[in-house]
Specification:
The complex is a heterodimer of chains A (726) and B (318). Chain A is an alpha+beta fold. Chain A is built from 23 helices and 33 strands. Chain A has 4 domains: 100 residues, Sandwich (Immunoglobulin-like); 132 residues, no CATH class; 194 residues, D-Maltodextrin-Binding Protein, domain 2 (3-Layer(aba) Sandwich); 216 residues, Periplasmic binding protein-like II (D-Maltodextrin-Binding Protein, domain 2, 3-Layer(aba) Sandwich). Helix content of chain A is 30%, strand content 25%. In chain A, the strands form 6 sheets. In chain A, strands 11, 12, 13, 14, 15, 16, 17, 18 and 19 form a 9-stranded mixed sheet that branches. In chain A, helix 7 runs antiparallel to helix 19, helix 14 packs across helix 15 and helix 22 packs antiparallel against helix 23. Chain A starts with 8 loop residues before the first helix and ends with a helix. Chain B is mostly helical. Chain B folds into 2 domains: 59 residues, no CATH class; 229 residues, MetI-like (MetI-like fold), CATH 1.10.3720. Chain B has 14 helices and 2 strands. Chain B has a two-stranded antiparallel ribbon. In chain B, a hairpin with a 7-residue loop joins strand 1 and strand 2. In chain B, helix 4 crosses helix 9 and helix 13 packs antiparallel against helix 14. Classes of the chains: A alpha+beta (726), B mainly alpha (318). Chains A and B meet through helix 8, helix 16 and helix 22 of A and helix 13 of B.
C-alpha cells in the first residue's frame, strides 16, 4: 500500500477506532446523553447508581433503534436521546407508547423513574433524500447529492462506468434503497435510472455550434454506494453530486459545468496543474473543460458587470513586488470580476497600515506579519474567514496545507481562521563547505535519523573554531580575543530567534497567550546558547558581527565563520555561491526539539465591504501558482502539499538556487520538525520588558534561570492585564 | 502714486468697493480693513488650529480613552493616568531623558559658545571655518547615525582605535548599558553648529565701542569676556538654553536610529517611548497620556528656567 507523505491519517484513524466507545455516551447531572446509535451495551455509573443501556439496531442501514434500560433499583434520571438533524420525521416510543418529540438543542429529554426492562424505541425514517446546495454556491449549481439517513452516497466508476461528472439525474427518477449483504460486509445501496449525454458524431475539437449538434441523453441504471466506501474495490473516480435535469433537456449543460473529481486529487495527490487547479477552484468560466458547457453558459450570462476593485497592501523588496504584480496580472487575466490594486509599502509597514485604518481608508486585503497577527486579531483588525476556508472545495481538503502547523498559526484560540499563511520559512544552518572539508567534518542531513545532537554540534563547532595561533577552544593557550574563524553564529535579537534556542530544546515562545520562555526547557536552551559564547568560546558575540559590518553569510564567504543559523529566506541572498555554502539542519537539543517557522499571512480586513471579492483574491494567493514563484527564488518554502510532490518539486527546486539536499528539507524535515513561532497578542510591549533580561544572558552578565523568570513574569502580568483579561 | 485703496484713482476705488461689497451690505472702511487683516493672518490661524489646537484637544480626549487605531475609542476614565504610576518603562525613559537633557544642554551651550568665540575672529578665510563647523548640523540625521555608529564601533571604531593606541581596553560604546547614554550625549555635541550660528550672530551684534571703552578702562581679555561679552550675550544664551531644553527633551532620532532604545532600555527616551506606545503597542490613549507628562515637564522646567535665569538676563533696551 502506498504510504502517505504526511503520516497523519493512519494514526488518526487508529486513534479514532480506539476511542470510538467514548463518543457514544456522556453523563451530566443525573442525565445520560446518547450521542450515537449502533449495536452496543454500556454500563454507566450515574452518581453511584449503575445503569446499563443496551442498544439493538442495525443503524445506519435500518431506521429502528431499540434501547433497553437495566437498573438494579428504580432510578430517576433523564435519558437524553440525540435526534439527528437530517431526520425530518423521528418517532419515539416508551414501552410501546408514543411520546411526542420536543427536542431541546437536538436532544430529546425523557425524565422519569426508570425501571429494569424499560424499552425506548426511536424510529428515524430513512427515505432517500435529494440534497441541494444553496443556489449561490456556483460550484454546486444545478446539482443534487443523494443521502439516506446519515449516509451520503456516491457513484463510483466500478458500478457506473467513466465520465461520472456528466451523469444527469432526472427529477422524476425513482430511487430504490436495497440492502446488499455481499457488498462491504453489508451496506444499503441506492439504484435508479439516470442519463448521461451521448454526443452523436462529434466532429472533434473543443467547440461546436450548438445548432449543428444533437446531444442525446442515454439512459442507464446507476448504483450509488455510501460515499465512505468508495475506492475500496478498484482505483476509479467518483461523483457525489449529479446534474439534476429540472428544466427542459435543452439546458442540460448547466450542472455539468462543475467537475467533481476532487476525490481523485486527494488520494493520489498529483501536482495540480494550473488547469486542474482552476477547475477545482471553479475560478473561471474560461477554464471549463467542456466546450458546449462554455457556450451555453456564455449565452446565459447577464450583461457584463463592472469589475470590483479591491486593494492589497504589503511590503517586500524588488522580488516580492514583482511577484505580487505578476500574480495580479494572472489573476485578472483569469477572471473579470475582481481587480486588485497593489499598495506596495516597503517601509514602516505596520504604522502605515494602521494609519490607513485610522483614517478610515483601510485596504481590503493585506499582508500581516506572523509577529503582529495575534495582536491585530485581538484588536479586531482581521476578518473571520473561517466560513470561506472550511467551505472551500480546494482549501478545505484535508491535506491541502501542511498541518497542523497552518491551522496553528492562522487561527485564533477558538480555531477561527483570520488569515491564510503565505508561505513558510524556517531556520537552518548554512555552513562553509571548505571549512568543513578541511576539518574533516561531515555535515548532518535533513532526514530524521541523521540530525546532530547537541554534543556532536558543540564538538564540531569547537573543532571549527580556530584562534590566530591555530589553537581550538579548550586547548592550552587558546585566545578568545583573537579568533580567526568562529564555529557558529546565530542572531538572537528578534522574535523568531528569541524562540529558537528554547524551541531547539523543546520549549517555546508562548502558550495560550502568555510567554513561556521561563519554562525549564526554554531556560536550558537559552543558557546553552549563551554558553556557546562564554563557556565554549565557539560563537562570537553579536557585537562582533555588528562591529565587523559583515553579514553572517559574508563571514562564511571569507571563512571567518563556519556555520550560521539563519532563516531559509537567506538562500535568496547566497544564490550562485554553492561552491561555498551548504545547508544542513539546526542542532536539536532534545527529543522534543523543533525548528521555529514563520511566514506572513494574507488577511481580509474587518472593514472591507468587498469580502466576497477579497476572498477570491486570498484564495488565489493560497494556490500553488503564487507561492511557486517565490519558492523558485529561494525566498519561500511551500505551506501546501501540492508543491511537495516529487513532480511539483522538480518544477520549482532550481539548480543554482537550492542545494541538492533541499528536497529533503522542504518535504521531510519541514513538515516534521518545523513548528510556527506563535507570538502572543500584545507582544511588542511585553518584549520591551523581557528583552533586557535576554540580552544580559547573551552577553554573559547573568544566568538565564536568574533573570529570565522574573522578567517573563513581569511581561506576562502586562499581557494578562491588557490582553487576556481585557 | 502708491497703491493703497485711499490713494487710488476714483474709478479704481469704486471697483474695489464693488468687489468687497458684491452681494452684501456696504461695509465701512474699518470693517473692510478688519476682514482684509484676518484674511492675511488666516494661514497662521488655520495652521495653528489644524496642527496645534485640534491635535492638542484630541490628545486630551485620548488621555481618557483606549484607542488602538482599529476599534472605536473606548472611555476608560483615569486608567491611563493611573498606569503612569506602575509603568516601569516610564520611569526608565524619564531617567534616560533627564540625564540626556541635563548633560547635553549645558555641554552643548558651552561648546557652541566657545566655538562661536573661536570663529568670531577676523582672520583670512574665516568663512571657510564657519562653514566647516556648521556643516555637521546640516548632515541628515540618518547619515549622522551611520557615521557615529562607525565611530563608536567596538571592534573597528575610531574611538576604540584611539583608546587602543593609548593602551586602554576597548569600550562597548553602544552595547554597554552604562556607556550608551554617555556616548549619545557626546554625539549630540556634533550638532552644536546650530546654536553656534545664533551665538555668532549675537557676538557680532555687540557694539565695538563697549570693548573699546573696556580696553580704555584697562580690561584684559578675560575681563572683557566676563564683563562685556557674557552680559551682552545673556539674552542669546538664555534663548539657546530654553530652546535647547525644549528640543532635547524631545530627543528621538538618535535613540530610534542608533540604539533602538537599547541596550537594556538605557536609551529609551521619552518620545521614543511615546512613539512605541502609539505605533508599536497601538495604545494611542497611553501615548497621549505620556505626551502630556512630557508637556508638563517641559512647561514646568521652562517656567523654572524663566524664574531663576530670566532675572540674570540683561536686555539692552529695557
Amino acid at each position: 500500500m502506498e504510504w502517505f507523505r504526511c503520516a497523519c491519517c493512519p494514526p488518526n484513524l487508529a486513534r479514532l477506532l480506539a476511542s470510538l466507545g467514548q463518543y457514544f455516551y456522556s453523563v451530566g447531572e443525573r442525565t445520560v446523553y446518547v450521542h450515537l446509535y449502533g449495536q452496543n451495551t454500556a454500563d454507566i455509573d450515574l452518581e453511584g447508581a449503575s445503569v446499563r443501556l443496551e442498544q439493538q439496531t442495525s443503524y445506519p442501514w435500518d431506521e429502528k433503534v431499540r434501547l433497553a434500560v437495566q437498573v438494579a433499583q428504580p432510578t430517576r434520571f433523564t435519558l437524553a436521546l440525540r435526534v439527528p438533524g437530517w431526520c425530518r420525521a423521528a418517532r419515539l416510543h416508551l414501552n410501546g407508547e408514543a411520546i411526542a418529540l420536543t427536542p431541546d438543542r437536538g436532544y430529546q429529554m425523557i425524565d422519569r423513574e426508570w425501571h429494569a426492562g424499560d424499552v425506548v424505541t426511536l424510529t428515524l425514517p430513512m427515505p432517500v433524500e435529494r440534497v441541494i446546495t444553496h443556489p449561490k454556491v456556483r460550484q454546486n449549481a444545478g446539482r443534487v447529492a443523494l443521502q439516506r439517513g446519515p449516509v451520503v452516497y456516491c457513484l463510483e466508476e466500478a458500478d457506473n462506468g467513466p465520465d461520472l461528472a456528466q451523469v444527469v439525474l432526472p427529477r422524476e427518477a425513482a430511487l430504490t434503497a436495497t440492502f446488499d449483504p455481499n457488498l462491504f460486509g453489508g451496506v444499503t445501496v441506492i439504484t435508479g435510472e439516470a442519463t448521461r449525454p451521448a454526443p452523436e458524431d462529434w466532429p472533434g475539437g473543443l467547440y461546436q455550434p450548438q445548432a449543428t449538434q444533437t446531444i442525446a441523453a442515454s439512459p442507464f441504471t446507476f448504483k450509488a454506494i455510501p460515499y465512505c466506501f468508495w475506492a475500496n474495490r478498484a482505483p476509479g473516480k467518483c461523483a457525489c453530486g449529479y446534474a439534476s435535469a429540472e428544466k427542459s433537456p435543452g439546458r442540460f449543460a448547466k450542472g455539468a459545468f462543475c467537475s467533481f473529481r476532487q476525490g481523485e486529487e486527494i488520494m493520489s495527490r498529483p501536482k495540480l496543474s494550473r488547469r486542474d487547479f482552476l477547475k477545482l477552484a471553479g475560478a473561471s468560466a474560461a477554464s471549463a473543460a467542456m466546450g458546449p458547457t462554455l457556450a451555453a453558459r456564455a449565452m446565459a450570462l447577464p450583461a457584463r458587470q463592472e469589475p470590483i476593485e479591491i486593494s492589497f497592501m504589503g511590503w517586500g523588496g524588488v522580488a516580492e513586488d514583482e511577484g505580487v504584480r505578476a500574480a495580479i496580472e494572472v489573476f485578472e487575466a483569469e477572471q473579470s470580476e475582481v481587480k486588485v490594486k497593489w499598495l506596495h509599502t516597503p517601509d514602516n509597514y505596520n504604522e502605515k497600515l494602521l494609519s490607513n485604518v485610522a483614517a478610515g481608508t483601510p485596504p481590503d486585503t493585506a499582508f500581516i506579519s506572523q509577529s503582529n497577527f495575534r495582536t491585530l486579531l485581538h484588536d479586531g483588525l482581521t476578518m473571520d474567514i473561517t466560513d470561506y476556508v472550511v467551505n472551500d472545495p480546494l482549501l478545505s481538503q484535508e491535506n491541502y496545507f501542511i498541518e497542523p502547523q497552518e491551522t496553528e498559526r492562522s487561527t485564533d484560540d477558538n480555531g477561527r481562521w483570520h488569515g491564510i499563511g503565505s508561505t513558510w520559512t524556517a531556520l537552518h544552518t548554512y555552513y562553509s563547505i571548505a571549512l568543513f572539508e578541511r576539518a574533516g567534518i561531515e555535515p548532518p542531513d535533513f532526514t530524521a535519523d541523521k540530525l546532530w545532537d547537541w554534543d556532536t554540534f558543540v564538538e564540531a563547532a569547537r573543532q571549527l573554531t580556530v584562534d590566530e595561533n591555530g589553537r581550538h577552544p579548550g586547548e592550552e593557550g587558546f585566545d578568545p580575543e583573537n579568533v580567526a574563524t568562529w564555529g557558529v553564529y546565530m542572531d538572537t535579537s528578534w522574535w523568531m530567534t528569541y524562540e529558537a534556542p528554547a524551541k531547539f530544546n523543546g520549549g517555546k515562545l508562548s502558550d495560550q497567550g502568555l510567554l513561556t520562555l521561563d519554562e525549564p526547557a526554554a531556560l536550558e536552551g537559552i543558557q546553552a546558547w549563551a554558553d556557546l559564547i562564554h563557556v565554549h568560546h565557539v560563537m562570537p558575540e553579536a557585537v562582533y558581527l555588528e562591529g565587523l559590518g559583515m553579514s553572517a553569510t559574508q563571514m562564511i564567504e571569507t571563512e571567518r565563520l563556519a556555520m550560521v543559523i539563519d532563516g531559509s529566506w537567506t538562500l535568496a541572498d547566497v544564490t550562485g555561491m554553492f561552491g561555498l555554502f551548504g545547508t544542513c539542519p539546526v542542532p536539536l537539543m532534545s527529543e522534543d526539539g523543533l525548528d521555529p517557522g514563520q511566514g506572513h499571512l494574507h488577511s481580509i480586513l474587518r472593514d472591507s465591504e468587498k469580502a466576497e471579492a477579497s476572498w477570491k483574491w486570498l484564495h488565489f494567493l493560497a494556490t500553488p501558482f503564487y507561492q511557486e514563484h517565490f519558492c523558485k527564488l529561494g525566498l519561500w518554502i511551500p505551506n501546501q502539499h501540492a508543491l511537495l510532490t516529487e513532480e511539483a518539486m522538480d518544477g520549482w527546486l532550481t539548480d543554482g538556487v537550492h542545494p541538492a539536499n533541499y528536497r529533503e528539507f522542504v518535504s521531510e524535515y519541514v513538515p516534521q520538525f518545523m513548528s510556527p513561532t506563535i507570538v502572543p497578542a500584545g507582544f511588542p510591549r511585553a518584549e520591551a520588558i523581557f528583552k533586557p533580561a535576554l540580552e544580559r544572558v547573551m552577553i554573559g552578565d547573568a544566568r538565564a534561570e536568574d533573570v529570565i523568570p522574573p522578567a517573563i513574569e513581569e511581561a506576562n502580568a502586562i499581557l494578562l492585564e491588557e490582553y487576556i483579561n481585557a | 502714486m502708491t497703491t493703497s485703496p485711499d490713494h487710488m484713482p476714483a474709478e479704481d476705488r469704486a471697483g474695489v468697493r464693488a468687489a468687497l461689497t458684491r452681494g452684501g451690505p456696504r461695509l465701512s472702511l474699518s470693517q473692510r480693513r478688519t476682514i482684509l487683516g484676518y484674511t492675511f493672518v488666516s494661514p497662521f490661524i488655520l495652521g495653528f488650529l489644524l496642527w496645534f489646537i485640534i491635535p492638542a484637544l484630541t490628545a486630551v480626549y485620548l488621555v481618557f480613552h483606549r484607542w488602538n487605531l482599529i476599534a472605536e475609542p473606548r472611555f476608560v476614565g483615569f486608567d491611563n493616568i493611573l498606569r503612569l504610576f506602575r509603568d516601569p518603562l516610564l520611569g526608565q525613559s524619564l531617567k534616560a531623558t533627564l540625564i540626556f537633557t541635563f548633560a547635553s544642554v549645558p555641554l552643548g551651550l558651552i561648546v557652541s559658545f566657545l566655538l562661536a568665540l573661536l570663529i568670531n575672529t577676523k582672520i583670512r578665510g574665516i568663512a571657510i571655518f564657519r562653514t566647516i563647523y556648521y556643516l555637521p548640523s546640516i548632515v541628515p540625521a540618518v547619515a549622522n547615525a551611520v557615521l557615529w555608529a562607525w565611530i563608536f564601533n567596538t571592534e573597528f571604531g575610531l574611538l576604540n582605535a584611539l583608546l587602543r593606541g593609548m593602551g586602554l581596553s576597548k569600550v562597548r560604546w553602544l552595547q554597554d548599558p552604562d556607556w550608551a547614554l554617555p556616548a549619545l550625549i557626546f554625539m549630540s555635541l556634533w550638532n552644536a553648529g546650530g546654536a553656534m550660528i545664533v551665538f555668532l550672530a549675537g557676538l557680532q551684534g555687540i557694539p565695538d565701542i563697549l570693548y573699546e571703552a573696556a580696553e580704555i578702562d584697562g580690561a584684559g581679555r578675560w575681563a572683557k569676556l566676563r564683563r562685556v561679552t557674557i552680559p551682552m550675550m545673556s539674552p542669546i544664551i538664555f534663548f539657546n538654553l530654553v530652546i535647547g531644553l525644549i528640543g532635547t527633551f524631545q530627543v528621538f532620532t538618535i535613540g530610534f536610529l542608533i540604539t533602538d532604545g537599547g541596550p537594556q532600555n538605557s536609551t529609551l527616551f521619552l518620545v521614543l517611548y511615546i512613539y512605541r506606545n502609539a505605533f508599536e503597542y497601538l495604545d494611542m490613549g497611553y501615548a497621549a497620556t505620556v505626551s502630556w507628562v512630557l508637556f508638563f515637564i517641559v512647561a514646568g522646567l521652562t517656567l523654572v528656567v524663566f524664574r531663576y535665569f530670566g532675572s540674570q538676563v540683561y536686555y539692552e533696551n529695557e
